[in-house]
Amino acid sequence: MLRTHLHLRRTSPTMLQRIVSLLLLILFVTAAPFASLQASAATSAAPSHIDAVLLIDVSNSMNKSDKNKIANEAMKMFIDMLSAQGDKVGIVAYTDKVQREKALLQISSAGDKQDLKDFIDGLSRGAYTDIAVGMEEAVKVLENGSDPGHEPMIVMLADGNNDLDESSGRTQSQSDQELDAAIETAKQKGYPIYTIGLNADGKLNKEILAGLSDKTGGKAFTTDSADDLPQILSEIFASHLKLKVVPVQSITANGSYQEVTVNVPNSSVLEANISIMSSQPVTAKLTDPSGKSIAIPSDDVLLSKSSSYSLIKLISPEQGDWKLQVKGVPKDKIDINLVFNYDLELKIDALPSAATYKKGDKVEISSHLFSNGAQVTLSNLYQDMKAVLLATDLDTGDVQEIPLDNSAAVFKGTFELKDSHEYELKVRAEESSFYRESDVLKINAKTGTVATSAPAAGTKPGGEEPALEKSSSKTLYFIIGGIVLLLAAAVAFWLLRKNSTRGFVGQMVVEVLDGNTGEKTYPQYKKLSAFRGKFTLHQLLQLAPELKESEKLVFTPGKNDRLLLRGGEGISVERSGRVADTSRGLELKSGDRISVALQTVDKTILLEYLI
User: Fold this and answer.
1) What is the pTM of this model?
2) HEC-encoded secondary structure of 231-265
3) What is the per-residue pLDDT for 423?
4) Which helix (H) or strand (E) segment is 201 a member of?
5) Would you say residue 168 has pLDDT above 50?
């Protein structure tokens, strides 16, 4: 089931905001990848708990990569954000051997979480580093203790570098082979690995860590400052749980209690989590929707604390307006955010099993919410959400987004099969605090039937196909196939030629931030109309030799006056404080801002696209 969490943080407001925003995003990626389903069986699996192994490098090199042990605080926050009951957490701390280990512990109480945090506080440093040793053990912990009904994951905090003990006789080749074997096991068993590269001393091995994540379906993050770690974990966490952070209010403390409203929108909320972020200590009071004062902590209000944060979790809160009173040090800025954890699934209704579909047909689509396995019939919950049908044409790759009607206790709409193609359909419904996606419903309009199992080769509805007819069919197939390939090649050539001469609109605002001095250049406005087809960031920066690393980023024209950004390995791009995946193309619209970290010169390029 999904979880939500409230954090009371006592670090800088900017750090805490990024922590909450980012810690809310990793768990979605660990959700089991959806398979192509038959239209007659398009149902969604029930939400499940998490089995997480926190893998941390505790070698002496971390004294520079993470001298303040903020990684420990980040791991403790991750634990506090987990559901009050049901999730499992294991910990592996390694050098060139397993320094300390804690097998998967099922969380049943606040005491269980405290045991894990006490274990983290007891970790010490050691000599040498061997990534393979730690990864092998993390995989074994999941193999030996993961529940088949849970979502497994590994979160690794390291600098990616090995430092082997020469006197042991162990070679780098041996370590590499064992690491490859561990990664292959994780891949086969569905253990996504999320890596957080610690680069405070500038010696991060990005390639190694990115490879671990890419091969297992996880994500790779990097940071030059340990302060970013909680933010990154937030992104990992929220992504997995399909949650959104709801800003409640920012206030400037005046030394007295100041009241804000926390609205619990419906009865499907399992947990509500409020984060109060401030650089100074704060105190809080809570009143339920009936006006009754609620103690913090109490039976249904959990409070977690650390040296750098506090977290309040409301268990099964009553629907309505809760009043939160916060008192802080005068003139201190206090930011408050809210995250909900919902017991809600979204299922797309199965189509008639005997139905057949062809080009031009219209398919009636409907989808329902489910809570604890039962269909939700409260129409107001549907009306509070925006739902769309995401229809992917598998032949062309085009994706349509079709708004669905939500006026009753159902999301419904119509999809037209415009071509004799294969289609994948799924419903996405969202509101301000969370979103849900259904599993995939697959329709094949090429054969005129619902996409079930393919017919046996060489047969037809009346029985065995004659040998001569088989031969003729194959010949015709190859002729048609050849013509299609020639046409496709011609179209591809035409598109490439067309795209190579397409122009750009608008301008790019460019600033350069020096990581050593903190100084930032004045904004420069670069008109893009001079470029045709594509241009690199290095060209935009007037080919400055010291910024040559920026040539790895390539801009091409997108649809509707947008830009498409693609990047090579070893260069980090962030948008809205989050690491962006540029390998498949990052779309930029007017007003979008990105930052590009250049490692070779310790400079960051700040870009804003304007039309």
Assistant:
1) 0.56
2) HHHHHHHHHHHCECCEEEEEEECCCCCEEEEEEEC
3) 93
4) none
5) yes
